[in-house]
Structure formats: structure tokens, C-alpha cells
Amino acid sequence: MREYIDYEFSELKNKMGSDYDLERVIDDWILMGFLVGNDFIPHLPNLHINHDALPLLYKTYMSVLPSLGGYLNENGHLNLRNFEKYLEKLAEFDREHFNEVFVDLKWFESKVGNKYLNEAAGLAAEREAASKDGRKNEDSALCLASLTTSEKVTGEEKAAAADDEEEEDDIFETEFRQYKRTYYMSKIGVDVVSDEFLANQAKCYVEGIQWILHYYYHGVQSWSWYYPYHYAPYLSDIRNVSGLKLTFEHGQPFMPFQQLLAVLPAASMELLPECYRHLMTSESSAIIEYYPLDFKTDLNGKQQEWEAVVLIPFIDEVNAQFEMK
């Protein structure tokens, strides 16, 4: 495996000379794997392993590393300055991906007219839910929804924009921001996608990356930490993070049976002592809200049902423990 990684990133040797350090590259390779999701954090939007996410991550890494003056992962500690620069370069993928969807939907808009966009957005969303390849249809649904809610550009404005590259870029950026706003509003359920909201999204995500690094390199730094959203922010919204102060409260772990209650569904209650099982099934249980019988799942661009986001509530650790007592 080490030989493969050394070969994969061999072009860095020519660019970096004696500054090339395979041990550090392996550490950064581990970090890059977090960006496609793991047990603790969701994948970044549109980054899927079966759609060449890993080659993209590696190619971007090799393009920026020689100019960073260091590495991303410093023995389990995130170099925020270097990580931010890596994400800035990686964020170009967001715009490239949106541009593909944007061009298709603009063509569609020109053919069917604005009055049909709302209906088309609903149909695209329905197709996404039933499709084996939900990624493309979900992108179309989000873009259609953004076109119906963003400020429309008139025919004269579009004609002028063709002669003015700067104005054309402004139109693209406006639609791109609306596309991302639609994602946050529909996925996370916020009414207003403010600067404060986006800054909090960025902080939470980077905090998650740092917690995971600590976990693998030094052990659990906080027993109470968890990523508080079902979805990750867009790459292009993870910015201005180099000055963040990331601290963790160590806390205490759940007791063993509490931990099982936290991770098992009610269908697996036989794995618990009998005296605990009613907590997962009884209507009078103080924590019954964490075991809903009916809940939604979201493929969120994935193809297999087991990959879907399971939309159940996060555990309020303090209140849950208090209620159980």
C-alpha cells in the first residue's frame, strides 16, 4: 500500500525534491479520504467515490502542495492555512459541476419557458427519488428549483451579457449562489442562508475534520462532539477557516448500554438486556423520539439504498441521560 501511494504521488518528487516526504503524504492521503465521508461526517456535495472523487482529490493535492510550504495533516493536527488553500483549489470543482448542470437547464429553460419550470422542478425531484442514478436528477431538480426562485434575467440583459464577459460571470455567480441556497434550504431546512449560517457550516465541517484526525492519531478528544447536520456544506462555502480556534470539551462517554441505545434501532432491541428494551418501544419512554417507526431517507446523489442519509433526529445527550435516570 505504501508503494502504491508513493507511486500515485510520484510527480511530487520532481516538483518538491528533498521536501517530498512519503510519511507526510500518507498522512495527507488519510485526510483526503475523510472528504468523501465516513462514519462521523457526511460526504461533500457531489463528491462520490464511484464518480471519480478520489482522482480529483489527488490531482488537486498534487497541484497545490508544492506551493504550500508544508503539508495538510501535521501528525493529527490540521494545518488550517494549508487546508484552506487546498479547499480553495478544490472548490473549482463546485463551479465546474454546476456549470454542466447550468448549461443543460438554461437550454431547457429556453425551450419550455419560465412558466413550466416549477412543474419541471417537481417532476425532476420525483424522478430523482425513484432513479437508480439519483445524482444527475437531483442536480437537475436543485438547479430547476433555483431557477424558479432566483431573480430572472431578461432577454435584453442576456444579449448584453453576451458582449460583456464580466456581466456574464456575474449572472453565473448569481445563479450559482441561488443553486447552493436551494440546497441548504431544501436539505437543512433553513429559511435564510445568511453569511453567519455559511460561516457556521464551514466551522462545523472543519471542526469535524479535526475531531476525526484527533480520533485516529491521538484518541478521542471529545466524547460529546458530533457533526450536527445530515449534510455537508459546499466546498466553495468552506472558506475563511485559517483563523479558527478549534477546541473540544472532553466530556464522558456513554455507559455501554447507553451506547447501544444510542446506535441500535428498535428492531435490534434483543441485543440489550430486557430491562432496557421498553425504552425503544414504549410510548411512555422518555427517549422514544429517537426510535421513529416512520422516517425519511435521502439518496443525496448515491445509488444504493444503504448509502442513503437516514433522517432521524440527533440525540440530545444531556437531556436523554437525564430523562433515562
Automatic annotation (TrEMBL):
<dbReference type="Pfam" id="PF17846">
    <property type="entry name" value="XRN_M"/>
</dbReference>
<protein>
    <recommendedName>
        <fullName>Xrn1 helical domain-containing protein</fullName>
    </recommendedName>
</protein>
<dbReference type="GO" id="GO:0000956">
    <property type="term" value="P:nuclear-transcribed mRNA catabolic process"/>
</dbReference>
<feature type="domain" description="Xrn1 helical">
    <location>
        <begin position="20"/>
        <end position="318"/>
    </location>
</feature>
<dbReference type="GO" id="GO:0005634">
    <property type="term" value="C:nucleus"/>
</dbReference>
<dbReference type="InterPro" id="IPR041412">
    <property type="entry name" value="Xrn1_helical"/>
</dbReference>
<dbReference type="InterPro" id="IPR027073">
    <property type="entry name" value="5_3_exoribonuclease"/>
</dbReference>
<dbReference type="GO" id="GO:0004534">
    <property type="term" value="F:5'-3' RNA exonuclease activity"/>
</dbReference>
<dbReference type="GO" id="GO:0003723">
    <property type="term" value="F:RNA binding"/>
</dbReference>
<dbReference type="GO" id="GO:0016075">
    <property type="term" value="P:rRNA catabolic process"/>
</dbReference>
